[in-house]
Amino acid sequence: MCEYKAWFQCINEECGETYQLNEIVYRCRRCGELLEVVHDLDKLRKKTPEEWKKLFDDRYRRQVWPYGSSVWGKKEWVCPYVEDHNVVSMYEGATNVFWAERFGKQVGIEDLWIKMCGNSHTGSFKDLGMTVLVSVVKQMIADGMHIPAVACASTGDTSAALAAYCAAAGIRAIVFLPKNKVSVAQLVQPLSNGALVLSLDTDFDGCMEMVQKICTEHNIYLANSMNSLRIEGQKTVSIEICQQFDWEVPDWVIIPGGNLGNISALGKGFLIMYELGLIKKLPRLVCAQAENANPLYLSYLNGFKEFHPVKAKKTLASAIQIGNPVSVKKAIKILKMFDGIVEQASEDELANAAALVDRTGTFNCPHTGVAIAVFLKLLNRKVFNPKDRIVIISTAHGLKFVEFKIGYHQGTLEGVKSRYANTPIELPPDLKAVKRAIFENIEMES
């Protein structure tokens, strides 16, 4: 039996109700608030900070199951409850922190990095949380609990991750998608992995309402980020960033925000390192929202004194087209602790920001475009010091959003003036015409 312990606990400090990780519970049964996974820090403190660093570094990208995964390589901090043989892993994590050297020089920030979380099994950071959640379900089933399926509402990436991990585990997956509001690539992923795909004529918030009702009335397990097991996997992004910088902490981390589980997860990852002495300071966090789905930004403007859901408008950043985020209280708590900032980006700003950085070697999703656009806005306001180390979280691979890319370069995106469009030059198979096109469009060496 593992010596390390973790449990669910109500986020309402006045309540503090606790539950075992093998209970099917998403909100506190006493007060109705969300839960979070809490670890026995006294047990974790039996290792020194240097011992934890060495353990995590020794496991990093090795082939000893399941610790080569950058999530399960930190198993004691994530989910010690799951036995190794019940872990469902795709070797997730360990994604590149791309030094955006050329882009950084263009804008005057040399220590600029993009954490490429989309370089993952299903093409988004959602794999990091789903490996934990599906592994817990597999453990619960192994322990004799009847769970007929796992379900989620999704704007695309969550459904892809759930379908893939459930397929690997041999567990039935059900995904609720808003009809005509996800990319073709995102739709085909759960279909290919054999999930039951329900396309509802509503938005994400409508899908979320429906899946909660289904999971509450039946023994189907809920896989959305209100299930705090997901947060445990996603918090390893923070740990991994510090690990990749030889356990140094960046000054700023910027991340897109929709349902707001990920900003909560980032904060939680930094906090556990701080509490256990692996790092000596906390970074500042920035949550970047699309202007068309910006309830957290509106709350930030009034100092988080009030929060009101909004009806999310259509945005190119479809995965964060969410007007009533489930994890808002967790997110606000983290942002206050980290002296955080919330900023928004218009459709024109996010599309052009993604295209601008693509021209320096990346291939960014529209949600990363939101984070980059917000970075540029804060840079223009001189929020950053030129010597600051800044990490932008890229949440998904651009190949999942080729319609967005094509529309941008063809100039067909509504509300977007494509300032960096690049289109093919159509020519006859004539050598003179080809030479003329080359010489007219690039500066040839003499």
Task: Characterize the structure shown.
The protein is of the alpha/beta class and about 450 residues long. The protein has a domain at about 95-120 and about 230-410: 3-Layer(aba) Sandwich (Rossmann fold). The chain is built from 17 helices and 13 strands. The strands form three sheets. A six-stranded mixed β-sheet has the order 4-5-13-10-11-12, sandwiched between helices. Strands 8-7-6-9 form a four-stranded parallel β-sheet. α7 links the parallel β7 (about 175-180) and β8. α6 runs parallel beside α7, α11 (about 260-275) packs across α13 (about 330-335) and α14 (about 345-360) packs across α15 (about 365-380). The longest helix has 17 residues, at about 125-140. The mean pLDDT is about 95.
What structural class do helix, strand and pairing data support? alpha/beta
Strand residues, percent:
5-15%
Can you give the helix content as a percent range? 25-40%
How do the strands line up in the largest sheet? Answer: 4-5-13-10-11-12
Given as residue ranges, the uncertain stretches (5+ residues, pLDDT < 50) are: none
Mean pLDDT: 95
- Number of β-strand runs: 13
Reported for the largest beta sheet, the result is: 6 strands, mixed
CATH C-level label of the domain at 97-121 and 231-410: Alpha Beta
Order of helices and strands: EEEHHHEHEHEHEHEHEHHEHEHHEHHEHH
Tally of helical segments: 17
Overall geometric form: globular
Termini, distance in Å? Answer: 72 Å
Query: Radius of gyration from the CA trace?
Result: 22 Å
CATH architectural designation of the domain at 97-121 and 231-410: 3-Layer(aba) Sandwich
